[in-house]
Each structure stands twice: as structure tokens, then as C-alpha cells.
């Protein structure tokens, strides 16, 4: 009895600070708060040239925070310098995630962090150890700033004097497009994005921006793992060539998640580029040379993976190209990145599951590893929920805007849900009710429907029992 008493008293003394909201609820509330704050800032008289309504400000703020890129007001001509800077800040906060900033800086303001918060952040940042949580967050912010600064520097020197004469305009253009590119936002200070006559043939600029949104969309865990692999190769070369030591081997420096994401992303980039190159060869790519056609095809096929920039006339593309773009938009970027969509790993798990079932296997095996059952269940839950949300949005917009074609509406809804920002030119024509529908779709696409369900539904405590298993007839 004495030992029980000591145990109970000791347990009562160890009380960790608990949050009122669970992590999913905090994630949702953070984005909602930032969107509303951004809407109020964009409605200030200094933010726009001719003023903006609340629904348009809310739409633009949601698009910026959710790094979508859809806009009902021209960013270059409709917003003032103050408004463009406000959009830039919203894009940066939304791209990295407001929770990353809030959690990292609150660590210094509060003098530490609770054990529960560290568990939340370890799941957010994919840290293997709790002690590495804030170190990982610091690395995320540092790497982001370094990449964006490098991108802005390269964009500045890729610009020609005939494009932007003013040095201050060139500096702001470089910073804005570097941040917008890395965060996969798709916002541009140019009225027609990179399809402007003086920019559509600037191939170095397109390659730089493409590199930015590819790195931003590949995910921070993948970047960290690749840096770890690069460090491993350097140490291995030093030991072998300089230190004259025997060769050593370190297994699985590149983990399974990195392999799946890189292979899937590579397949999507190559396939999308080749398909657009051949389909649009004599259409939207007609005015370019053969090397230019390949670069423009690469830029516009990879931008569908949630980046949102364009250097061709989207409304003039063939229907087959539009359907391919819708599929690429739906898949989107990679997990823990600035992009949206169902994610490359989700699509890869779905395909691997198809192949495993066709071969008569009861589990998914790849690279001598078995994918966890919970990952498979989450992948198919995300796919199902995404199709439901997008389908409902299409039905609503078709009923609200009967004069618009199903092709344009479907493209707009998939673009909004996957936070891509590409459009066939109907965004500004939508009614207030349609804009409200897209605002909800953009928000759900950014925070994910699964996170919303977790935030809304009461979590069931783990029960240590199992019911008898039965198979259900399917097909």
C-alpha cells in the first residue's frame, strides 16, 4: 500500500502543461486566424489601388495563405506595393505553416516548451528524437531563407534590361517570385504570369523558378535526408582518398520515404514533360524552338504539381493536355512540403497496392521493406476524401454557374483543392457564392480533409482488445 501511495503521489507531481486544443484543432485555428487577419490587411485603403470587397479580400488571403495562387484581382496592377508585401508575408507564413513559426518562436518567448508540444512538433517535423525537434525547426527556417535568397539572386541576374528597367523593381520582382516559387504559391506581379511577351522566352528564368518550386515541393524531410546522404558521400570520399582508410558502408542512408518520393516525382516530371511536348508541339509550344519547347513543356508540366505559374496560354491547350494536368494537380507535391494535392507518396502507395493485389500478396513490399498497414489506410482515406470534396465542389459550381463549361469548372476545382493556382480564365468571372465555395475548397486542400475530421471528431482511446476478423466480399 505504501508503494502504491508513493507511485500515485509521484504521478500527480509530474503534470505536463496541456493545451486546450489538440494538434489538429490548433493547426486549423492557426490557418483560419491567419486568413482572417490577412483579409483585414488586404482591405486597408493602402493595400489596393481601387479598393476590394470583403469576399475578394478573403478569397485572395485564403489563396495566399494556402499557397494556391488563384486571384480575382491582378496582383501587379490591383495591389499597391504595400499590398504586394502583405501578400508576400502571407505566402511565406502559409508556405512554411503558421504552426512552424509559432511553435519555434514561442520556445524563446516562453522560455521553453512542454513535453506534449514537443511530441506534436516531432510528428510535424518528422524528427526521430524529441531533443531534435527545435533543431529541426531551426533548420527548416534556415534552409528556406538560404534557398529563397539564392533563388532571388539568380532571378535578378536572369532578368534582361528590356524586361524591368528600374533596379528596385528588379529586386522586388526577384524576391517576390523566389518566395512565391519556393512556397509553391504561383502568385506573380505580372498580369499574365510568365506568359507576358517579354518573359515567355526567358528560359533561364523559367528553369530557376522551376528549381525553386521543385525543391519546395519535394518536402523538408527529403531535403534533410539528401543532405545527410551528401555528407555521407563526402566523409566516405575523405576516408578513402585522403585518410587512406578502408571503405566502409552505412546501410539505408537514403530511407524508404525518400526513395519513393524521388522515384514518383521523377516519373511524374518526365512523363508530364514528354506528353505536353508531343501534344502541344504545334499548338501552345509552336512559337518556341525545339530546346525552348522542351523547357516550356518541363516548366508547365511540373508547375501543375501545386506551383501555379504558367508560360503558355492555358485556355488554348488541347483537352487531352488539360486532363493530364488535372491528374498531375490531383497528385500534387510531396509530404511535409509547401505544396498540396494528395501527395506523391499517397499515389505511390495506391499503385503499389494495386500491384500487390494483382500478384496475390497480402502486404506491400518494396526495397526489402514492408509498408505499414496504417500508411495504406491513410493513403486510401486521403484519396477518397479528396475525390469527395472535389466532386461536391464541381457539382456546386456547375449549379451556381450554369453558363460555364464543365471542363473549366473541373479544372478550377482541382486547382483550388490541390492549391495549384492554375486557371482557364474563369476565376474573376465567378459569383460571390462560387468564390466562397472555392475558399472552402482551398482551405480544405491546404489543411487536408483528414486533419479536419481529426479536429472535429472525438478521439477514441486505444482499447487493448481485438474482435474476430471476417472478410467482406468485394468485386
Strand order of the largest sheet: 1-2
Q: Helix/strand/pairing class, anyone?
A: mainly alpha
Regarding quaternary structure, how should these chains be classified? single chain
Count, helices: 19
- What distance separates the N and C termini? 59 Å
Mean pLDDT figure? 83
Please describe the biggest sheet, giving its number of strands, its sense, and whether it closes into a barrel.
2 strands, antiparallel
Measured as a percent range, the helix fraction is 55-70%
User: Based on DSSP secondary structure assignment, what is the total number of beta strands?
Assistant: 2
List low-confidence stretches. Answer: 13-18
Provide the gyration radius in Å: 24 Å
What pattern of helices and strands is seen along the backbone? HHHHHHHHHHHHHHHEEHHHH
Give the overall shape, derived from the CA principal axes.
globular
Q: Bin the strand percentage.
A: under 5%
